[in-house]
Every structure is written in structure tokens, then in C-alpha cells.
Amino acid sequence: MTRSIKILGTGCPKCKTMSNLVHDVVKENSIDATIEKIEDIMEIMTFNVMSTPALVIDDIITIKGRIPSKEEVLELLK
């Protein structure tokens, strides 16, 4: 089953770091996933997220306002 991953962030350095980290984890572990970067503030607000970056996996907000470790992202995707 393909996982749906959304990275919410306006393009700040932390958001870019999280985006790169998630891409690396998916690639390194051959995870079947689609990754979407959402930078539009109005769209981000539909998730009721006030602090970015945020990580949404299969429409569930898993992390917000901080950059996770690779291990944490991998655990969330398992």
C-alpha cells in the first residue's frame, strides 16, 4: 500500500530540512510513498497546524513544529 506523506511548511530552512530528511528515509528504506510538499499557508491552515514544519502521514498529523530524526520518521512509516 502506498503511503501518503505531506510536508507542511512555508519553505523555511527547517521545512526544507524535514523535506530532505523524509525523502532520504523513503529512498533509503524503499518505502512505497508519495511525498507532497505543501507551502500554501491557506492549505496548511486546513490541517489546523500553527507551527511548521509538520509531517502528515496518511492524513494524520504525526509531527509539528520540529524536525524529527530519521529513526523517528522510519518508525512512523512502518
Describe the structure.
By secondary structure, this protein is α+β, with helices and mostly antiparallel strands. 37% of the residues lie in helices and 27% in strands. The protein is built from three helices and four strands, in the order E-H-E-H-E-E-H. Helix 1 (13-28) packs across helix 3 (70-77). The mean pLDDT is 95.
Task: Please sum up the structure shown.
The chain has helices spanning 13-28, 41-45, 70-77; strands spanning 3-8, 33-38, 54-57, 60-64.
Number of helices: 3
DSSP E strands, number: 4
**Poorly predicted parts:** none
Please give the CATH class: Alpha Beta
| Secondary-structure class | alpha+beta
Pfam families: Thioredoxin_3 (PF13192)
Protein name: Thioredoxin family protein
Domain Thioredoxin-like fold: 4-78
InterPro entries: Thioredoxin-like_fold, Thioredoxin-like_sf, THIRX-like_proc
Please describe the structure with a list of short key phrases separated by commas or semicolons.
78 residues; alpha+beta; Glutaredoxin; 37% helix; THIRX-like_proc; Thioredoxin family protein
Ordered list of secondary-structure elements with their pairings:
Layout lengths: L2 E6 L4 H16 L4 E6 L2 H5 L8 E4 L2 E5 L5 H8 L1
Parallel strand pairs: 1-2
Antiparallel strand pairs: 1-3, 3-4
Helix pairs in contact: 1-3
InterPro entries: Thioredoxin-like_fold, Thioredoxin-like_sf, THIRX-like_proc
Protein name: Thioredoxin family protein
Pfam families: Thioredoxin_3
